[in-house]
Amino acid sequence: MFGQPEILLGIIPGGGGTQRLPRVVGPSRAKEMMITGRQVKADEAFRIGLADEVVAHESLAERARVLAAEIARGALVSQSLVKRAVDEGMSSTLTDGLLLERDLFVESFRSHDSQIGVKSFLENGPGKAQFTGR
Prior knowledge:
The chain has 134 residues and is mostly helical. The chain folds into 2 domains: 5-54, Alpha-Beta Complex (2-enoyl-CoA Hydratase, Chain A, domain 1), CATH 3.90.226.20; 73-124, Lyase 2-enoyl-coa Hydratase, Chain  A, domain 2, CATH 1.10.12.
């Protein structure tokens, strides 16, 4: 179950709940969930963008290992830049976010992994690069 049930205690969500939930599911749905205290099950959380994936309990550990391995094989410097672009961009204007993205895009080409990725793409097609994390 996902939700912000604090209203049922006569209080409002803390820890950023009133700010983060609307950015994920939209202000109208977020207000409805927070004002009523309604929680959503995994299938609805997935449908409204609150969860990225729904996995059966018995498959959860294996799915987590597979995803972790996939991320670990990636271009770690650029992964970090993506996270920074999204996190900082979401707390700024679209114009400022686009300027940040431009700067981080240029910065990503300074990584060793970008050279590996471009070379691998040209020689083997997408998704076959063996990144070093540098």
